[in-house]
Amino acid sequence: MFTNKPVLLSILIAGVVMAGCAGSEQEEPRTVTGEGNHLPNDGAAAGMQIVGGQLIGNWALVSLNNHSLLEGSGITADFDGEQITGSACNHYFGDYTVEAGSISFSNIGSTDMYCEYTMEQEQTYLEALAGVNAWSVEGSTLTLSGETANLLFERVVPPSDVSLEGTIWMLESFVTGGDAVSSLIGDTTVTATIADGQIAGNATCNSYSGAVSIDGAAITVGEIVATKMACEIGMEQEDRYLATLAEVSTWQIEGTMLTLSADNGNGLVFRAQ
Length: 273
Fold this sequence. Notes:
Order of helices and strands: EEEEEEEHEEEEEEEEEHEEE
CATH architecture of the largest domain: Beta Barrel
Radius of gyration: 19 Å
Distance between the termini: 26 Å
Low-confidence stretches: 1-49
Largest sheet: 10 strands, antiparallel
Number of helices: 2
């Protein structure tokens, strides 16, 4: 089941308790470029040295409390100078405050989708993240540590030139009505590649293809054909994806993210592989 209800994580003596909350306004996304120092939005002077500038960017977790991640799974963390966002089973978010060598996280929340295979790993990660109090960056490696937490990340270097065509796009989320965002079913993959007037990929269970026309920021997807294999998991997601893909009318790339939007506010958000 898809949902975009944020779940605030309160750290208690016994661990992390997740509680749903609805109706909160979504903050406008911010775009931060480069790996240097982050300048606040209050007009700070150029060249100002900001503590924690090395954190800014996208990271992939490679070790969780000195253990490797489950095979086929992944956890990401994106720091923008004020907030952390990323994905595990669910998409998560939170605020952070950083000083030289120390860091603290607050207001950690996530979407509320159940993933049978990676749910325990995700909860372990979020509990560890909440307990982090120190950070260090050496080369391309970020270490977040605390009394019982030890998280090791490697920096993700985005492609230097991300093009709409010829890039393998991995679906990150669905957009409904312009503001409601929902994640994919756990351990499923949806892809899209545009080339030579065709769009093709994996829709969750089946492979698909169709004609595509691009005119500036406008995009039109023609009749889509797909294989007819039945899968126990993901058929509703596949139907939703193909239906949304057929109605998109505009495209936009920001960094490594591609958004395909329809006139009714529905859309698809991809990340470049």
